[in-house]
Specification:
The chain is α+β, with helices and mostly antiparallel strands and 105 residues long. Helix content is 28%, strand content 19%. InterPro entries: RcnB.
């Protein structure tokens, strides 16, 4: 097995310069003008991400729910489930950090 590996390694080392020589003899590539546009990152309303903090306005909009009714897992101590639009968020009570996001179907 070691001999096979060493033979394959030697063959690849020897074949690399040959492949580069063939590529150098290929037709020249014409320079093309490349335009790079700036992209904006837009967070859509209702797009919730784990680790994001709920704003004060979102906290007022959020409605605490009974997790059993929607078949969600029981929240750990210090967290509660809230519903905003059609999303269920597991949010820290004091910090307001989103721990989990579930989308209602």
């Amino acid at each position: 097995m070691k001999k096979l590996f060493s033979i394959l390694l030697a063959a690849s080392v020897l074949a690399a310069p040959l492949a580069m020589a063939v590529e150098a003899n290929a037709a020249p590539v014409h320079n093309k003008e490349v335009v790079v546009e700036k992209k904006k990152v837009v967070v859509h309303k209702g797009h919730w991400v784990k680790g994001r903090r709920l704003s004060t306005a979102d906290r007022h909009r959020a409605k605490s729910i009974d997790y059993r009714r929607y078949r969600l897992k029981a929240p750990p101590r210090g967290y509660h489930w809230v519903r905003i639009d059609n999303n269920f968020l597991l949010v820290g009570i004091t910090s307001g950090l989103i721990s989990k996001v579930e989308i209602a179907h």
